[in-house]
Input
Amino acid sequence: MQDTEEQNLDRAVLVALRLPETNREDLQDELKELAALCASLGTEVADQVVQARSRPDPATFIGRGKAKQVKEICNREGANVVIFDEDLSPAQVKNLEKLVDLPVRDRCGVILDIFATRARTSEAKLQVELARAEYMLPRLTHQWTHFQRQIGGGRIQRGFGEKQLELDRRYIRQRISVLKERLAKLQKQRETRRKAREDYFRVAIVGYTNSGKSTLMNWLTDSNLLEEDKLFATLDSSIRAIVPTEKPPVLMSDTVGFIRKLPHSLVASFRSTFEEAGAADLLLNVVDLSDPRFREKMEASREALKEFGLDHKPRFTVFNKIDVLPESKLPAIVRSIYPSAICVSAVSGEGCDELKQQLLGFFEDRMVDVELSIHYDQGSLINRIFENARISSIEYQEDRINVRFKATKSEMGRIEGHLKRVS
Ligand SMILES: Nc1nc2c(ncn2[C@@H]2O[C@H](COP(=O)(O)OP(=O)(O)OP(=O)(O)O)[C@@H](O)[C@H]2O)c(=O)[nH]1
Ligand SMILES: [Mg+2]
Output
């Protein structure tokens, strides 16, 4: 992890609003998640403050009196940053910073920070930098030095005075257009690569962050992708073939995890990553069944899928982590509520073979069964079938070969084209 020294400096007070429609348990769960997000950045949580209100204050989000109380708590606890569990408007941040006299950050800012520490490929780095630049632009104030380290390139100077601020804004705007151009180029390359995979079957693993997507993908593809007990361990969509390799291979891609209140700037920047999932024939929606609030997280994932335009795709729901369930009977109960869900443990491998069979079965249903009788002088056609189709029986005769096989519809189209050419 980068910037360890700086990250260890932060001690935060978390602040949330409880609106009339908010359930107390949901809010506690969200605050727990926010604390986990902070922990990922090495930020210690000193205390948390919840204010019940009928609606957020447009200028200061919480009430002014409450803000003063937050300031006192920060002083008492030695906190150096205040983190809100919602996205704040730039004006709210400005007003709150005056009231609490400390840097104020929101949920979106924290998630963006995490993404920045996790991005590994050049595309993910550009996507995160773009999301942060767009987030920061309207928020640049005299107090923004806290954010200064967050933007890439190191070109930005500490801003003093309106003139400097205007120069910084101009720089960020220019940077945004450069980043967009670079991303568009990368996206073109990605499209070309995706086209090359059109003949394969494709599965994308999606789901809430930390649900075990990468672990499951490692199990199914016998690979070694980063899996960690951390929110947002994966930011790059890796692609691997399910083993043993079939004809055509079934390719699997890992994706960025979902989270409640996924920041919009991130959704926009990471949209291209989800294009991989958009091109998939099937989604595996992984749910951490050991999480008591798995239903809420399923709902958040469902909303995110909708936001990325993936909600109409064929989808398997995979309940993961059944090895840590308090009662071994639970999967049976869950199965009765979600009859089509598949229960697995990506760590022990329980249920994973069944999942693989169901996956392969899904694709097999999309293949056509063919029987052909081919002259030996059509060697290239015979080779093509042996290379690209699943042979179920072969019969060698004097002048010809009778072959039964399964092939994808697109492969069958090519075989038919070949037959037409020679007839
Ligand atoms: N007990 C148990 N732990 C699991 C299982 N699957 C994954 N884990 C653990 O859950 C944590 C998260 O796993 P990942 O595979 O990184 O989860 P992810 O969904 O890829 O997470 P992000 O990439 O951060 O969104 C890791 O510590 C895994 O070891 C499982 O079946 N049982
Ligand atoms: Mg992952």
Summary: The chain has four domains: 4-115, 121-193, 198-364, 367-422. The mean pLDDT is 85. Residues 47 and 402 are 75 Å apart (CA to CA).
